[in-house]
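Thread: "does anyone have the structure for this chain?"

Original post by V.I.:
We have the sequence but no experimental structure in hand. Need at least a predicted one for the grant figures.
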Amino acid sequence: MILNSLAAMVLGYVFDLMFGDIDSAYSLTKLIDSLAGKFREKLKHRYVSSGEGQTLAGSLLLALMIVIFVAPTVLIIILAYKLYFVVGILVEGLFCFAAINEKKVNQFGSAILRSLRRGKPLAARRNLSKLTDEDVSGLREEGIAKLSVKAIAENTFENGVAPLFFIAIGGGIGGVIYHVINRTARAVRGEDKFLSLAPRGMNDVLGLIPARISAFLAVKDARLLALDFENAKKIWKRDGKNLHKINDSQTVAAFAGALDVEVVGNTYDDEPFIPAEHIGDPKKECDQSDIFYAQQLSYGTVFMAAVIFMAVRLAVGIIL
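Reply from O.Q.:
Generated one for you, C-alpha cells below.
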C-alpha cells in the first residue's frame, strides 16, 4: 500500500506540472471554497456573538468540512483499490493532484510578469489580485513586484511543499485533509478572531514542519541558482517570524534574502512602515526580474521537496 501511494504521489505531482489547477466550479478547491463560505455565513449568525459562541462556530465549521470532504475521499480510494490496484493508484493520484496547486501560482506569476513587460500595470494588478485575493489598486510597479514575490513564496509552501509533505505521510487522503483545512482557514481569513481560531490554529499547527522545510530548501535552491545564498540564510533566521502568518513568513524571508530585496515593509505606497512586519533588506529595488527568479526558486524548492519526500516514502516502503 505504501508503494502504491508513492506511485499515486508521483502521478499527482506530474499532473500538476503538466496541467496546473483545473479551473472548474467542480474542482476540489472551488468546492471547498464554496461550501466553506456558505457554512461560515450560516454558522457565525447561528451562534451568539461572544468569544465562546464564535469559537464553537469555527470549530463546527472545520469539523463539518473535514467530514464532508475526507469521508468520501477515503471511501472512493478504498473502493478503487478493491476494484484493481492500477485503478486505485490512478484515483489516488487524482486526489494528490487536486491537493497540489503549485503550478497555478507560477502561471499567475508569468501573467503578472508579461503584463509588466508589456507596460500594462492594470492587467498585472488584476492577475495579482486573483493570486492574493487582496485589494492591490494602490500598487505601482515596485509594489506589484514585491507582493508578487511574497505571494509566490507563500504559495510555494502552502500549495507545494505542505501538501506534498502530507501526501508523503498519508497518501491522497493526507493531501486532501491538509487541503481542506488550509482552504477552510483561508475562507475565514479576515473574519472575527474567535470564528477563525480553530481553522487557522489547526492550519498553523499542520504547517509548522513543512514551512521550515520549505524555507530550508529555498535557501539551498538559492545556491543552485547562484542567488545570494548567504543573505537567504541570514534573512530567514532574522525575519522568519515577522509576519502574523508565522509559517508563511519562513519561506517569504528565504526568498527575500535570496533576491536581496525588501519584500515586506512598505508594500503599499500609502502605508506607513511597520517594523514588526518587516522582511528583507533593500539592497536593490524589487523589479520584474525578481518575479522571474521567485518563480525559479518556487519550482526548485517544490521539486526538491517532492524528490526528498518520495525517497523517504520509498525507503519506508522497502523496509516495511
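V.I.: this helps a lot. The two ends are 10 Å apart (CA to CA).
O.Q.: and Residues 2-319 form one domain.
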